[in-house]
Amino acid sequence: MEWSKTPITAEEATKRIECLPEFLRPIKEAAGAIASKSAWIEDHSGAILAGHYLDMGLIDAHDLVLFPPISREILRIYEKVNDFSLPDILIEFLAHLNGCNIFDLRIYGAPASMARNPPTIDRSRCTPLDISSGRHWRVGYALASEDDLLFASKNVGDDGQIGYFITPAGLVIGRGNGSPEVDERSGPWSNVTDWLASEIGQVR
């Protein structure tokens, strides 16, 4: 799908990106570099789009998609409607950045339409992958504890994929999908910032 979007200057993109907190610095640095060449705002969602992901072969695929923050109030409704609990660190994450795509890395978010009753995915606008659906997608990855929450994934090669889980203690662990292109296990990283610093450098 081709999104309706409006071009913005590199300065405007940088201004928006620099609002991200320090614990998301690896995203700030990578996003700033990508958006320095070309950037847009998706008209319906307000997402920042930057770069052209030529590997995808799609007319409107981007190297970078940063979704705008979602309010904590809507997140509380989202949790209740979806019977789903988010750890504090992910609530803090989504309150500043409601999911993002950086090359092959996808960090899930809470689409606002999924906070409605009944929850639905709005296909008319650019939205993050739904983090509450991770409880269903987790079966495609190597075994992780039921207490660990799937919140991100990364494509590797033709059919390899790594799912990233956060533990109740705040550790981030990676689990492969059985493809020989990826290790069954990766990590752990002690926190989200360390994981971002490690993985964003490997997404291309």
Automatic annotation (TrEMBL):
Instruction: Name the InterPro entries for this protein.
Output: Knr4/Smi1-like_sf
Q: What is this protein called?
A: SMI1/KNR4 family protein
Q: Which organism is it from?
A: Sphingomonas lycopersici
